[in-house]
Amino acid sequence: MPTGSQPDVEPINGSTPEILDGDFGLARTIEGLLFVADRALSVSELADVTGASESDVRSALGNLADHYRPRGIVLLEHRWAFRLVSAPDLADYCRRLLGLDHRRQPSRAALETLGIVAYRGQATRAEIERVRGVDSDSALATLLSRNLIRESGRLDAPGRPAVFTTTDTFLAYFGLTSLEDLPEFELNLEPSDSDD
């Protein structure tokens, strides 16, 4: 192999890596970056670090997603950022290994709050409480402590209310690889006019 044409990679069992389709060096580099990152990385961050174009990064990410689809690791996309996580169907095994208690399921109030944030994309405390009709401080605190939601910013409005969005931990917890995997659901985000 000529110097500088491809990275020096020794194939497993003498076979060629499956992601060798044109951008193996870039896909391999991105894979390594995602593996060591402690957070999801955006296409622009990956392009900056690798020196590749955003188009080439997207192509390499597509190849990685295809490569991992049948494996125990998947490429998770959340809000235009990517990270490597265990496959959703292995969640029970992972919880067992990590000693996570199945009985510690989020409360109904927390799940309602999480549903509003997930399906709406983002929401403030006032918006959540307007939909639920009750105080949501405890539910929000629970979701924040479990890293299922995070504060993504503040509105330019009186009191500068916090805006909450879901996290990639939310996706992993519910076995999703992107928000597009959420089941179809028509969410009425306005409170009913009745007093019931």
How does this structure look, described?
This protein is of the alpha+beta class. 41% of the residues lie in helices and 14% in strands. The chain is built from 8 helices and 6 strands, in the order αβααββααβααββα. It has a 3-stranded antiparallel beta sheet with strand order 1-3-2. A 3-stranded antiparallel beta sheet has the order 4-6-5. The protein is globular, with a radius of gyration of 21 Å. Residues 1-22 and 192-196 have low confidence and may be disordered.
Strand content: 5-15%
* Widest sheet, order of strands: 1-3-2
Structural class: alpha+beta
Kindly provide the radius of gyration, computed on alpha-carbon positions and rounded to a whole number of angstroms.
Answer: 21 Å
Overall form: globular
Q: Main β-sheet, in a few words?
A: 3 strands, antiparallel
Discrete helix count: 8
- Span between N and C termini? 75 Å
Oligomer: single chain
Which regions contain 5 or more consecutive residues with pLDDT less than 50? 1-22, 192-196
The secondary-structure element order is HEHHEEHHEHHEEH
In short:
With 196 residues, the chain is α+β, with helices and mostly antiparallel strands. 41% of the residues lie in helices and 14% in strands. Helix 1 packs across helix 3 and helix 2 crosses helix 3.
SSE map:
Layout: H1 24-36, E1 41-42, H2 43-50, H3 54-68, E2 73-78, E3 81-86, H4 91-98, H5 108-120, E4 123-124, H6 125-132, H7 137-145, E5 149-154, E6 162-166, H8 168-173
Antiparallel strand pairs: 1-3, 2-3, 4-6, 5-6
Helix pairs in contact: 1-3, 2-3, 5-7
